[in-house]
Amino acid sequence: MVVREGSNVTLRCAATGTPEPTVTWRREAGGTISLSNWHEVASIEGPELEITRVTRLHMGPYLCIASNGVPPTVSKRIVLIVHFQPMVFIENQLVGAYEGQTLTLECRSEAYPRPITYWTKPSNETIANDENYKVESIPKGYEITMKLVIRSVRAQDFGSFRCVATNSLGETDGKIKLYRIDRPPTTRRPGTRRESKKTWKIDHSHEKKAAGMKDEPMLKGDDNDDEQIDFQSATASSVFHWHLFTNLGITAITAILTAGLST
């Protein structure tokens, strides 16, 4: 059953049997049926299904199911097709871009029969796929998503692009205006320095002098970096000096005791 949007339609399904069967209408894909008073029902009984001021939302297959309590239940399938002229929807009608930017423009169209879709440049030339433009249409039912990919925006691209949808019932277009913006900076801000790592420094020069060891100058790194010392190595050095002082102390006490015994 093919009808124009806005008209009235009646779907009929006659059934016979003993006892007399009842006919129930349902949508094949599930969902509700919108009646003339905008009341929505999951199913409706009767040999006829009347829809007033049909819209594209009514489009799809319907099942009339006949049953009288004696198996099996029988059904028939009726597909309702609604014709309407194209409509175009645009989410962003004003888009800013800079030269050299990769950009995607998008429109959404609704129409049935399925429309022919295309894009035009600001110079009103029809756009074909080439090294700088890619045109893509993604259909889903009576909806089509129209995409235009601009691989590198050029000076002649600033202006109004049109997305056009046309079928046997009419033609509709939408406009997206592309305007110039400054290219965002890509360099780091001046005066930014790498944060240096703070470390602990331990001076062991007095320990070395007490142990009779020669003090050596500490190694220095890059002039731009802070002097760093491995904390674990410094700790190990402190443990070594502690054992050294302990051994020296024991040696000194032993020497004093030996001297006392000799006396």
UniProtKB/TrEMBL annotation:
Q: Where found?
A: Cell membrane
Q: Which SUPFAM superfamilies match?
A: Immunoglobulin (SSF48726)
Q: Which UniProt keywords apply?
A: Cell membrane, Disulfide bond, Glycoprotein, Immunoglobulin domain, Membrane, Repeat, Signal
List the residue ranges of the region (Disordered): 183-224
- A Pfam family in this protein? Ig_3
Show the ranges annotated as biased composition (Basic and acidic residues): 192-222
- InterPro entries per UniProt: Ig-like_dom, Ig-like_dom_sf, Ig-like_fold, Ig_sub, Ig_sub2, Neural/epithelial_adhesion
Ranges for domain Ig-like: 1-75, 86-179
- Gene Ontology terms: cellular component: neuron projection; plasma membrane
The name under which this protein is listed is Lachesin
Q: What organism does the record attribute this protein to?
A: Harpegnathos saltator (Jerdon's jumping ant)
